[in-house]
Design a protein that fits this description.
paralog of FGE (formylglycine-generating enzyme), alpha+beta, 13 strands, 19% strand
């Protein structure tokens, strides 16, 4: 049974799981702070991932994938939330009653030596420039604050959520000319990120799923992974630091390089000007276009699996 909720003019879906439980959109408040973010339900289902377009061999072949249900952030993570994690002293000043010991002891990013907003500002805008390790550690901080397991999406989860039931290039069809209604791209961004939620959402309530900033996934990138990918909840674990899969394109991406199946990759050149040896595990000083969007699985893993995800050692970057 499917129900629809209407909030602030946006239709949000909720899915009845049984007579006593509802899988629905919700707002997550970060305890002790005025900061919150919204999560929307993504139902379990199957879809054809990738494409058979010969111009993009890393999207080949289109293959069936089956996914369990999860929630996904309606927006990319913004600076108002990420900066609480980044700066312990800022978090203390913003948190009523102070920061709990278990949160206070968390390893945090080194404070960047550059302006990691890259002059684009923070007000309502997505946080940018963090490494995949930094994005995962932000999820760990959220877990300590909320007790809820948040993580990065798998590549399959990201594409499934972006498609929202569509098998075409975009969730709204194949018309590249309509992308400006939904996304900040190289053609309309003015060379900057923009506050979240100014464009139209996709049918599952996801804003800026294309454009604004690229979004981390869990997966390691291999061009031919789809030829051997599993069907159920597939993921390609990382064996090396580069490249990881990023999705969605950014404010710097041409419209011709966007679509639900398009696969981007992390690049060591994003740290070219980093003077540290080994290079920072937290920041990409030349990547003003990379950010993150949260996922929460409907059925969370065990406590042991949760901690294994959060406490994995970073791979040194020389």
């Amino acid at each position: 049974m499917k129900k629809f909720l209407v909030a602030s003019g946006l239709i949000l879906m909720s899915f009845q799981l049984n007579e006593s439980e509802v899988f629905e959109a919700y707002t997550q408040k970060i305890p002790g702070t005025p900061v919150s973010f919204d999560m929307t339900p993504i139902p379990a289902g199957s879809f054809l991932m990738g494409s058979n377009d010969s111009k993009f061999p890393d999207q080949n072949p289109a293959h069936e994938v089956k996914l369990d249900a999860f929630w996904m952030g309606t927006h990319e993570v913004t600076w108002d939330s990420f900066e609480l994690f980044l700066d312990k002293h800022y978090e203390q000043t913003m948190t009523e009653g102070g920061v709990e010991d278990r949160v206070d002891g968390l390893t945090r990013p080194s404070l960047p030596y550059l302006d990691m907003t890259f002059g684009m500002g923070k007000d309502g805008k997505p946080a940018v420039g963090m490494t995949q390790y930094g994005a995962i550690q932000y999820c760990y901080w959220l877990y300590l604050k909320t007790g809820i397991f948040y993580r990065l999406p798998t590549e399959a989860e990201w594409e499934y959520a972006a498609r929202a039931g569509s098998s075409e290039r975009f969730f709204f069809g194949n018309e590249e000319s309509r992308l400006s209604e939904y996304a900040w791209t190289a053609s309309n961004s003015g060379g900057s990120t923009h506050p979240i939620g100014q464009k139209k959402p996709n049918p599952w309530g996801l804003y800026d799923i294309f454009g604004n900033v690229q979004e981390w996934t869990i997966d390691f990138y291999e061009e031919n992974f789809y030829s051997r990918s599993g069907k159920d909840n597939p993921v390609n674990p990382a064996t090396k630091l580069y490249p990881h899969v990023v999705r969605g394109g950014s404010f710097k991406t041409p419209e011709s390089e966007m679509g639900s199946a398009f696969r981007g990759i992390s690049d060591p050149s994003w740290k070219r000007i980093d003077p540290q040896i080994p290079k920072s595990q937290w920041w990409f000083p030349e990547a003003p276009f990379i950010g993150l969007r949260l996922v929460r699985p409907l059925n969370p893993p065990s406590q042991e699996q949760i901690m294994a995800y959060y406490t994995q050692e970073p791979i040194a970057d020389y």
